[in-house]
Amino acid sequence: MGWKSDIEAASERINGHIQITPTLQVQGFGLNAPVELKLEHMQHTGSFKARGAFNTLLSQDVPGAGLVAASGGNHGAAVGYAAHKLGHRARIYVPEMAGPAKIALIKSSGADLQVVPGAYSNALELAQQYETETGAMQVHAYDAPATVAGQGTCFSEWQSQGMQADTLLIAVGGGGLIAGAMAWFSGSKKIIAVEPETSCALHAAFQNQQPVDVEVSGVAANALGAKRIGNICYDLASSQNITSVTVSDRAITTAQKALWMQHRILVEPAGATALAALMSGAYRPELDERVAVLICGGNIAPDPLG
Question: Which domains does the chain have, with CATH numbers?
Answer without folding.
Answer: 3-47+144-295 (3.40.50.1100), 49-138 (3.40.50.1100)
